[in-house]
Amino acid sequence: MADATLFARRRSPLQDHGAALSRGAVSGPRGVTLTEIPHLAQITLRGDPGNTDFLAAVRSALGLDLPLKANTVAAAGDVSALWLGPDEWLIAGAPDSEADLTARLNAALKDQHVSVVDVTANRTVLELAGPSARAVLEKACGLDLRPREFKAGQCAQTNLARTVGILEMTQGGAWRIYVRNSFAVYLADWLLDAMAEYAIDAKF
Amino acid sequence: MTGFRLAQGGRIDRSRPLSFTFAGRAYRGFAGDTLASALIANDALLVGRSFKYHRPRGIYAAGAEEPNALMQLGVGERTEPNARATQVELYDGLTANAVNAWPSLEWDLGALTGLASGLFVAGFYYKTFMWPPAFWNKVYEPAIRRMAGLGTAPREADPDLYDKVHVHADVLVAGGGPAGLAAALAAAQAGADVLIADEQAELGGSLLSARATLDGWLRATLEELRGMPNVRLLPRTTVFGYYDQNYLCLLERRTDHLGPAAPAGISRQRLWHVRARQVVLATGAHERPLVFAGNDRPGVMLAGAVSTYINRYAVVPGKRAVVFTTNDGGYRTALDLAAAGAQVLAVVDPRPESAGDLPAQAHAQGIEILNGHAVVAASGGKRLDSVSVAKLGGGAARGVVCDLLAVSGGWSPVVHLFSQSQGKLRWDEAKHCFVPGTVTQAQRSAGAANGSFALGAALAEGFAAGAEAAKDAGFGGWRAPEPPEVDDPREAPPLALWQVPGAEGRGKAFVDFQNDVTASDLKLAAREGFESVEHLKRYTTTGMATDQGKTSNVNALAILSDATGRSIPATGTTTFRAPYTPVTYGAMAGRDRGDRLDPIRVTPIHPWHVARGAVFEDVGQWKRPWYYPQGGEDMHAAVRREAKAVRTSLGVLDASTLGKIDVRGPDAAEFLDRIYTNGFRKLGTGRCRYGLMCRDDGMVFDDGVTTRLADDHFFMTTTTGGAARVLEWLEEWLQTEWPHMKVYLTSVTEQWATVSFAGPRAGDVLRELSPALAVDEESFPFLSMREGVVAGLPARIFRISFTGEASYEVNVPSHHGLALWQAVMAAGEKHGITPYGTEAMHVLRAEKGFIIVGQETDGTVTPLDLGMDWIVSKQKDFLGKRSFARPDTSRADRKQLVGLLPADPAEVLPEGAQLVWDAAESPIRMVGHVTSSYWSPNLGRGFALALVKGGRDHHGKTILAPLAGKTVEARIVAPNFLDEGGKPLHG
Amino acid sequence: MLLIPCPWCGERDETEFRYGGQAHLARPLDPHATGDAEWAEYLFMRDNPKGWFRERWNHAAGCRRWFNMVRHTVTHEIAAVYKPDDPKPELPE
Q: Is position C46 within any domain?
């Protein structure tokens, strides 16, 4: 299970980018911040949503009902399940819980045709928050992000700048962006560049 | 002095004077001026020379339709060509020059072409400059470009910022005139999210140009809209493109009007991508010129523009004015001129009588009205000095000395966006204009854009359109407010007068001012057989200038229809295309330039490569270390050292970029059997196999090593560039062709970092880092995988090789990638471990004849062409197998993979070099090409891989590579250069 | 840019999708029992109508599902989207 020494040897894609992220933070009524939430446990789960045994087994393993509605998120405690496709979910949990989550899922789903793959190190998570967060995201993303259309508890896989990512709105109204590790620096720099104008005291 | 500024009135701010220069001369204007209005106030109406004849031209319009006043703004890196002075807001320090005045505006050599104008008739490019052919590049084109060129692009990089946003709206309103504002208000009150854009700095459209304004209503409406959280007002924003499913593009000029005072860090312009549920087009109308001799003289202006200059900018373009109009609107200009203190000498109206309210008012003020008359000619040089007026149907012309002629040939609705949306136009016989007809998207037109030119009608239509748009967007149940009271004058029907009779023989009558196309050019083209409007346009270039014919298209069409004896609707229109007005490339690029032009992908080990001074190669979007130069080494020296180290001791490569796919399910083995040319069902757990994938046409698609982790679980690797493509393709087969197969695929490319160390010392390093692992040949044979702990990190260790040397690829979760790399470097130090890049890797694999998909293959190469029959199963079926038996795929003379050894060992052939048997042949037959070529430190010579027709039958023969300046001889050999012991195979 | 209603994710911009060409091409059940001409027909020959067309799309940047769509190749109107195993809809007039 969790091994503190091993965990300490991890590096996140934006580990060296902390200073740039802090420098880019804008406060005030037009404020916006970008932070990394590193090492969230992530598991890709594939299975047949038409199979009640599958849904029941996941419920027993994670304590939540997999979301069957497209582009929605279900959560229980610090575990959440994001709908990615009609037979695909991303299970996200606290850092260093991926081994535990994998074991629980594998045990509950034994003998079923499913796929449980640890993808913790496949993506990192960026969080974009503040009054100007939506305006910044609208520069990178073509989805309808109006509060009426994209609410807390929703998610979407989509194009972000010139890469792709998973977008989730948290209960607190911040945007979480799950981005492939190799693109993390690119996307963070892109968003920082898009944030810069909100630090300038000019009305446009 | 003719043009002058009024002491009162207008929407300019007289407390804020501004300085600017035009053509090197200093002028003053006010905040609220456009460059055009400020020039008129300074009596500097002459703004350029025409395209072909270099005739003096003056400001002609007051908006986007301006054909003449094209400006080169600014200097150096910020210079911008072809800005319309009528749309440039004045700022302090503005510098402008005429784009087409060589060598100067006042003294213009090019005007001599006016004397030789017989050369410049319709199709003059095709007729005059045909012969001799060699003259085109050297003589004709440079001369034409210098004389006729429009503006200069900056040579330096653009220093300004640009950005883009993507927004969604329930209702997008294009145009902020009375109809647009009414529509926005109605839709917003119904609860819809409304975005209203207008190209001008101030919203209000035609209301800003009229004396009898709805000022109170305008103020109240803007205030209400500004206060609504569901409304976004975008002044200085042009809706320039209308695409499928209500996708519209807008260009917002955010800081252009501030000039040097623009704040740093704010994008100069912003491109808006808008997806709207409903669209209201309230884009207004453009006034049409009248076509008579000398109708381009500076001082001839559109009547509506004259009114705009007087009422909005408080400038009067002339002191002694004549109005020439086919409709009642021109009389409004006459009244405006009179009210502003100009002398109105006459209103020339070809209609037999003028029965409307406005003519009556003009008459009451003592303005002379010449019914049944027309202006047949205007004369003057740099400024209009008189016009000739004649009775229609004959009679002597009389001259009227004047400095301003306001013309109105009627109005054309701005249907550009409507047409871009694939709407079909309808010709309105009563109004003499094209109006929106069949609508194909969720959209409606309102106001002048819909042919409803009267203010009251425009407002009513606007309110109705806004309410209906909101309802269709899901915001019904709201009744639109009543439009404000408007007392529109009674108007008599307009007359269609496409070309003034009696003007022939008096001089050039222009239809397209910007491209200098005359009425006789159009008629000549029609006589020559260019009867289709699309042909006419291209042959005469009418409508093809930067203004895209905003003032000329309908007149040109009408003249063509007259010349060909067809009706106007039967003649048709040319296609309207985006953008409505020009858009800078900077805005289209947005922030995606420099390092953000394309994503830069990096591995977790990237910081180490940077610190080590690696030179990077772009592989797809990845940055991969190409080589690691040491102490002033050039690339060749570094690659030699790196490639040598792998064969003699130990090298290490960051292979994290390989695509990786987790394949799981009871049918996984069967699935792989169908996908790969070789078999995977019998692969033992813990064993690896190299596989080749073909498309169904038999051509190689990708390759890689796949490992069986469990009975129903495989780990596939793909090429670096192929990762996404392969996954999508595999899903395609699973989802569409074999949906019954129980297999799940998950991309894990970035889950794993891969450190590959190779060379005689590789085993020693693994033993040291993984003491619990048995590394001997028997316990850990070639092409197998073990799970274990390497440097304290949980890992999958693959014993596979792409170099021919003993080699281990260790995979750890990518967050441990750098830690693993550092541990390998530390453990390898005593063996002289050498990090190597992609170039050395390519040399090493080519020495062994291993192909790279995309280098040795190009989508036309089969496994058999590559001599890889050994990997093609004879027993099972797989994708592509059927195609191997196609006649074209089984030809004996297909290009086949061979090795090449240049006769001169020092020679390294260029990749892509064509290969021939006989360089003296004519025409020379190409029989192949070089796919990979390197210097090998292990062979001590240059060597190459190549595809040669029937190449396998020609081992031992000499083939030629004709290069620039020399022809290189090379011997064809089998595509493998080292034996098992690492000794050269080919002597 | 098209607005494509992915049968799973709803309306998304065309840039999220990859085009997959003509739909309902049947791969011969036994390619090796197929003559060269018939096999070439399957590999290379596609309809190219001016009008309504049933075609395949992949929601590459979203749910990664393949689906079919009925689109008018001139007006770009979209009449229907359906899953690969759904019945083939009639083409509009």
A: yes
Inter-chain residue contact B266 with A149, CB threshold 8 Å: no
Asked if B671 contacts B741 with a C-beta cutoff of 8 angstroms, the reply is yes
pLDDT at B979: 82
Per the DSSP assignment, residues forming a β-bridge with B691 are B704
Say whether C36 and B275 touch across the interface (CB within 8 A). Answer: no
d(CA B696, CA B677): 11
pLDDT band at residue B105 using 50, 70 and 90 as cut-offs: low
Give the mutation candidate from B730, B882, B890 for the C interface (greatest C CB count, under 10 A).
Answer: B882
Q: Which residue of A has its CA nearest to C83?
A: A86
Tokens for B784?
């197998």
**CA distance linking residue B182 with residue B466, whole number of Å:** 7
pLDDT, position B212 = 72
Confirm if B857 and B700 have CB atoms less than 8 A apart.
yes
Level-2 CATH architecture, domain A15-202? 2-Layer Sandwich (3.30)
Whether A156 and chain C come into contact, CB under 8 Å, resolves to: yes
pLDDT tens-place string over residues B487-544? 899 999 999 999 999 877 889 999 999 999 999 999 999 999 998 999 999 999 999 8
Model confidence over A148-184: pLDDT tens digits? 999 999 999 999 999 999 999 999 999 999 999 999 9
pLDDT per residue as tens digits for the range B123-164: 665 565 555 666 666 666 666 655 555 788 888 999 999 999
Q: How many Cα atoms occupy the beta-carbon half-sphere of A135 within 13 Å?
A: 17
Give the residue from chain A lying closest to B162, CA to CA: A194
Compute φ and ψ for B248, nearest 5 degrees.
-125, 150
For residue B607, the chain A residue with the least C-alpha distance is A16
Domain ranges for chain B, please list them: 4-129+143-148, 162-285+413-472, 606-657+751-844, 659-747, 891-987
Task: Provide the number of structural domains found in chain C.
Answer: 1
C18 in contact with chain B, both atoms CB, cutoff 8 A: yes
Among C4, C9, C15, C67, which would you mutate to test the A interface (most chain A Cβ atoms within 10 Å of its Cβ)? C9
Q: Which residues of A touch C9 (CB under 8 A)?
A: 70-71, 156-157
In angstroms, the separation between the Cα of residue A91 and the nearest Cα of chain C is: 15
Q: Does C27 touch chain B (CB under 8 A)?
A: yes
Comparing B772 with B393, the larger pLDDT belongs to: B772
Using CA atoms, how far residue A88 sits from A116, B463, B558, B744, B814, in Å, is: 10, 48, 61, 10, 23
- Report pLDDT digits (tens) over B795-809: 999 999 999 899 999
Is the model's pLDDT at B118 over the cut of 60? no
Is CATH 2.60.120.10 the right assignment for the domain spanning B4-129+143-148? Answer: no
CATH architecture of B891-987: Beta Barrel (2.40)
User: Cβ A84–C8 below 8 Å, yes or no?
Assistant: no
| Contact between chains at A163 and B163 (C-beta distance less than 8 A) | no
Task: Name the average pLDDT for chain B.
Answer: 93
- Across C12-36, average pLDDT: 95
Q: How far, CA to CA in Å, does A72 sit from each of A41, A81, A129, B81, B603?
A: 19, 9, 20, 50, 31
Q: Rounded distance, CA B865 to CA B699, Å?
A: 10
Architecture of domain B659-747 in this structure: 2-Layer Sandwich (3.30)
- Helix or strand or coil: residue B460? helix
Domain carrying residue C41? 3-82
> Which residues of chain A neighbour B600 with C-beta distances below 8 Å?
185-186
- pLDDT tens-digit series, residues B591-623: 999 999 999 999 999 999 999 999 999 999 999
Tell me if C60 and B735 make a contact (CB, 8 A cut-off): no
Whether complex ipTM tops 0.95: yes
Residue A1: what pLDDT? 43
Instruction: Determine, yes or no, domain membership for C91.
Output: no
Report pLDDT for B131: 57
